[in-house]
Amino acid sequence: MTKTRHLTILGSTGSIGESTLDVVARHPGQYQVVALTADKNVDKMYEQCKQFHPSYAVMLNPQSAARLEDKLRIAGLDTLVLSGIESLEKVASLPEIDTVMAAIVGAAGIRPTLSAARAGKHILLANKETLVMAGRVFMDTLRQHNATLLPIDSEHNAIFQSLPHHFNGDLTESGVRRILLTASGGPFHNVDLDVLETVTPEQACAHPNWVMGRKISVDSATMMNKGLEVIEAYWLFNAAPEKIQVVIHPQSVIHSMVEYIDGSVLAQLGNPDMRTPIAHALSYPERMESGVQSLDIFKVARLDFEAPDFKRFPCLRLAYEALAAGGNMPAVLNAANEVAVEDFLAGAIPFTAIPAMIEHVMKSTERQEVTDLEGVLLADAQAREQAHSWAASHARQYIKQTGRPSSLSAR
Ligand code: NAD
Ligand code: MG
Q: Is the pLDDT of residue 411 over 80?
């Protein structure tokens, strides 16, 4: 690689953020980390500043920013510490950077990611929620400002790698019959359906193959993650929902496939380690070492495939419905899911209430067109309000049924 890339990493203290820094550290001189951002994790951010000497470190939380500043000053480091959402937007669009890793979790990622798009940056997109909430707005913004996008989500990165180099957004023109989007099925793929009522956050976060943040781990357990990924694929590859087949593949070795009209099926395989798609996107169109072990194909030995069970995973059905409805509905789905997952992780609602809450919020929201960021943020806020009030009434029911306290009753 010839030119040094100048990076902002949004969400650097998270699972994707740390994997990105791990890859970057393997290639000294090729990448300069200009800005790192996080919500509250001061200790991890401090360690990252010591190792990578960024010009900026942004903590969303002002108290965390003040603590980080103290620690950096004592250590004699001159990283400029900022806080707040405007600072996240600022470091995503600095003139001295060319590339932004968008790895904030959830709807919180939308404003900084859009800021990077408006500044015409090269965006490596892990924050799938931005595309789910604001697919049209985000894709239009990219085009208007000549920003470029590469997918980090392992499935979409695999699809990108399996599509022709000249892919121009028209699957039919490229001879693609369909996309096979693989899913591990998560930790509850085989458990009895009545067990789902009582599963704990720890069980839900114990993903069989991937180590990830807690929100996406729960999304994998409900398969909402795959639902969000269907919507993500729709926007990234201009793929009609009927051209996207979800395939349960418990080994998570094939990261997705593309089937062509001549019957060829191209796949990308590898160990389930996010450093592969991260290194691919960082070095594209070249290749570089990622630290990922060679795939031991003999140890893998077999690859299984099953059709998804929509009864076991109602979140997948809800995501297809939101995509078909369009307008505000994907943002509503995403917001209700974020509230439901938070409440489940806080022990306030049972696992099975996650799809129930989302379905309730979707049914009680009128479909509307959204044409700008304000419209998306409004749909998001209204859906959150609906979800909170549903959760509050459900929490009372939950206490009655189980005799267990719900943390929501304190809210
Ligand atoms: P994580 O929870 O491990 O990390 C999230 C990061 O975002 C942290 O740095 C955190 O400080 C920051 N953050 C959280 N809330 C914030 C807020 N309100 N404002 C600003 N920053 C905030 O999450 P993760 O697993 O790394 O996932 C990040 C994104 O990547 C998600 O959108 C997820 O769906 C996607 N993704 C993750 C994986 C994976 O393997 N972890 C795989 C594919 C896609
Ligand atoms: Mg994925």
A: no
Going by the DSSP 8-state scheme, the letter that residue 81 receives in this structure is E
- Tell whether 185 and 111 lie within a shared domain: no
Ligand 2 center–CA 144 separation, angstroms: 27
Instruction: Please compute the mean of the pLDDT values over residues 153-168 and round it to a whole number.
Output: 97
Distance 294 CA to ligand 1 centre (A): 26
Mutate to test the pocket of ligand 1, among 105, 215, 232, 273 (most ligand atoms within 8 A of CB): 105
How far is it, in rounded angstroms, from Cα 95 to Cα 68?
25
**What residues contact 282, with CB distance under 8 A and at least 6 apart?**
5, 20, 23, 24, 31, 99, 124, 288
Check residue 6 and report its DSSP letter. E
Distances (CA, A) of 353 to 285, 344, 405: 44, 8, 16
Q: Which ligand is nearest to the CA of 274?
A: 1
The three-class DSSP label of residue 39 is coil
What is the rounded CA–CA span in Å between residue 380 and residue 393? 20
Cβ atoms 84, 62 nearer than 8 A = yes
Closest atom, ligand 1, to C-alpha of 274: 40
125-149: pLDDT as tens digits: 999 999 999 999 999 999 999 999 9
Tokens found for residue 45: 């951010």
Is pLDDT of 409 > 50? no
Please report which ligand is nearest the Cα atom of 16: 1
**How does pLDDT run across 349-374, given as a tens digit for each residue?**
999 999 999 999 999 999 999 999 99
Geometric angle at alpha carbon 141, from 20 and 338, rounded to 5°: 60
Instruction: Answer yes or no: do 110 and 68 share one domain.
Output: yes
pLDDT of residue 276: 98
Nearest to 140 by CA among 366, 372, 363: 372
Ligand 1, atom nearest to 211 Cα? 40
Q: For residues 208 and 261, state if they share a domain.
A: yes
The residue segments making up the domain with residue 209 are: 154-215+246-306
Query: In this prediction, what percent of the chain has a pLDDT beyond 90?
Result: 93
Number of folded domains that form the chain: 2
Q: Judge whether residue 410 has pLDDT over 90.
A: no
